[in-house]
Amino acid sequence: MHEQFLRTQMLLGTAALERLQNARVAVFGIGGVGGYTVEALARSGIGQLDLIDSDCVSVSNINRQILATHSTVGLPKVEVAKRRILDINPSCTVRTHEVFYTPETAGQFDFSEYDYIVDAIDTVTGKLALVERANAVGTPIICCMGTGNKLDASAFEVSDISKTSMCPLARIMRKELGKRGIKHLKVVYSKEEALTPTGWEEEAAALGKRQIPGSVAFVPGAAGLILAGEVIKDLAKL
Q1: Is the Cα torsion angle 214, 43, 133, 237 positive or negative in sign?
Q2: What is the pLDDT of residues 139-198, one digit of tens each?
Q3: Of 140, 101, 136, nearest to 117 (Cα)?
Q4: Distance CA 155, CA 11 (A)
């Protein structure tokens, strides 16, 4: 029994831990949500991790992203994550992809190589492309819905997309997936009504965006940990 994963093995069992160590998981989006997901997957003993994100760490990430510190500002998020994962578990195989996932870049990935896919990206078009491709090859996928402009970390639920309510992003995804003949999708979402952010105009203008959502340290992190928990339970067949 490997001491590092002893406490995990005590709960999941030897066979389940071996399944985790033999699994390959792809996490799309290594930001406020995905960073915490990757952290938990690495600490749970996942043997192979693919990290997909084109962003570099910025100062504005420090308030909520586990990978963001003053020493990592300016570095690619996937490389910071890889370094952290290997420090946690040197036996983990980590593949990094500095790619902004869209329908146009989707062809760079073979989803049949993965045992599980985590969607922690922000764009609807990217999310739809992830779900379609995962569905086409039969690879399990879990998607995070909106976490911005929210303060209640306890409000997140795990549900099928068909049973979601009160979440604008889930409503759009449900409608668009229905058009594509996809009725079911495992998601993490919150019924909390989004707050109206203030003070975003200057930063939004600098980035060429219409609006920037507010966020805090504990909400996206909570969603990310829930995502990881579902992946671990499903792969361990609990």
Answers
A1: negative
A2: 999 999 999 999 999 999 999 999 999 999 999 999 999 999 999 999 999 999 999 999
A3: 140
A4: 26
What end-to-end distance do the CA atoms of the chain give, in Å? 20
pLDDT value at position 1?
A: 47
Query: Mean pLDDT for the chain?
Result: 96
Task: Check pLDDT > 60 for residue 108.
Answer: yes
User: Which H or E run includes 118?
Assistant: strand 116-119
In our burial notation (b when 16+ CB lie closer than 10 A, e otherwise), range 14-52 reads eebbebbbebebbbbbbbbbbbbbbbbbbbbbbbbbbbb
Token representation of residue 57: 């760490």
How many whole angstroms separate alpha carbon 152 and alpha carbon 133? 32
Between the CA of residue 176 and those of 30, 125, 131, 181, what are the distances in Å?
A: 24, 10, 11, 9
User: CA-to-CA distance for 206 and 88, rounded, in angstroms?
Assistant: 37
Report the pLDDT value the prediction gives residue 202, as an integer from 0 to 100. Answer: 74
Amino acid at position 48, single letter: Q
Residues 23-66 pLDDT 10s: 999 999 999 999 999 999 999 999 999 999 999 999 999 999 99
Structural domains of the chain sorted by starting position, each given as residue range(s) with its CATH number in brackets: 3-236 (3.40.50.720)
Residues whose CB is less than 8 angstroms from the CB of residue 114 and which lie 6 or more positions away in sequence, other chains included: 24, 25, 26, 50, 139
Which positions ≥6 away from 144 have C-beta within 8 Å? Answer: 33, 118, 119, 120, 187, 188, 189, 223, 224, 227
Q: How many CB atoms lie within 10 A of CB 115?
A: 19
Name the amino acid, one letter, at 78: V
